[in-house]
Design a protein that fits this description.
This protein has one domain: Double-stranded beta-helix (4-Layer Sandwich), CATH 3.60.130. Helix content is 24%, strand content 24%. The protein has 8 helices and 15 strands. The strands form 4 sheets. A 7-stranded mixed beta sheet has the order 1-2-3-13-5-15-4, covered by helices on one side. The chain has a 3-stranded antiparallel beta sheet with strand order 12-6-14.
């Protein structure tokens, strides 16, 4: 089967979410295949690869062919408590012994922030470019992931709002996003680690030139605005950006790999039975430069 990328929903959402066929990600890709994946990401914002039986090493090898990786520093587990290395993000409900964590476990409660709309690593000065999430074991039901197209959301704004937001800068922090859920038990070291960072509210894609909203539950303020007004406005923008016409919901199958561009999408995980295993591994490419260095 030849390499091909088609829209998942050609009838109503041909511009967002593509499914890739004719490729085996467990082997080293050709330069042409790598270029085609980047082109597919530029077009669709996210890609789905089915039946990719990746282990940690092959996932890392594939990811590194696409660009430099960031270190996994977004979770709350101490390095000695992690079950996998720092090059991979452990998106699971398992401890280092492979056991399902308790419902009130601090790591699980922190991880519930993934159920809020967000963009990976927007709380870092240099945020994420691509995220690549591999489904190793999934629960019998629930646990889907929803993705929202921030390019289409920007295009649908009225002209006055586009002018208003064009040069705005937001402050992002995981302290804020977890606080939305009532999780505020952070150590002083964690508060310093996740001190607020500045990100543009509007970003221009460096290849396509398209403008998009850059939103996340981590965004807790807008520079120069009163906090209540900023948070109300960011909530309005998020409600606008996550309308159903802009959203694709991925129903996971074992060994799916889903890849998305954090510069032009938001995503959120959906609920599932906390007693069931959900084992996902994420590699993340760094954007290499701050959003502030890429003027819209």
């Amino acid at each position: 089967m030849a390499f091909d990328i088609k829209p998942i929903d050609p009838a109503t959402r041909a511009f967002f979410a593509g499914v890739v066929s004719g490729i085996d990600l467990t082997r080293r890709l050709s330069d042409e295949e790598v270029a085609a994946i980047h082109a597919g990401m530029d077009r669709f914002g996210m890609l789905v690869f089915h039946s990719q039986k990746l282990d940690d090493e092959s996932q890392l090898a594939f990811s590194r062919q696409l660009g430099p990786l960031e270190t996994a520093t977004g979770d709350i587990a101490a390095p000695e408590d992690r079950r996998i290395g720092m090059d991979l993000n452990d998106i699971s409900n398992l401890d280092k012994h492979g056991k399902v964590v308790a419902r009130d476990d601090r790591r699980r409660l922190f991880g519930l922030g993934n159920q809020l709309w967000h963009s990976d690593s927007s709380f870092k000065e240099v945020p994420a470019k691509y995220s690549l999430l591999s489904a190793r074991q999934i629960p019998p039901s629930g646990g889907n992931t929803e993705f929202a197209d921030m390019r289409a959301a920007y295009d649908a704004l009225d002209e006055a709002t586009r002018r208003e937001i064009h040069d705005l800068v937001c402050v992002h922090s995981q302290i804020f996003s977890r606080g939305i859920l009532g999780f505020d038990e952070f150590t002083e070291a964690e508060r310093q680690k996740w001190a607020p960072v500045r990100q543009r509210l509007v970003r221009r894609h460096p290849t396509t030139g398209r403008l998009s909203l850059y939103l996340a539950s981590h965004a807790g303020g807008i520079e120069g605005w009163p906090v209540p007004e900023a948070r109300a406005f960011l909530r309005d923008l998020t409600e606008h950006a996550t309308q159903r016409p802009f959203v694709y919901a991925h129903v996971w199958k074992p060994w799916d790999l889903v890849m998305w561009d954090n510069r032009v999408t938001m995503h959120r995980a959906r609920r599932y039975d906390p007693n069931e295993v959900r084992d996902m591994r994420r590699t993340t490419l760094t954007n290499e430069v701050s959003s502030l260095e890429q003027a819209p």
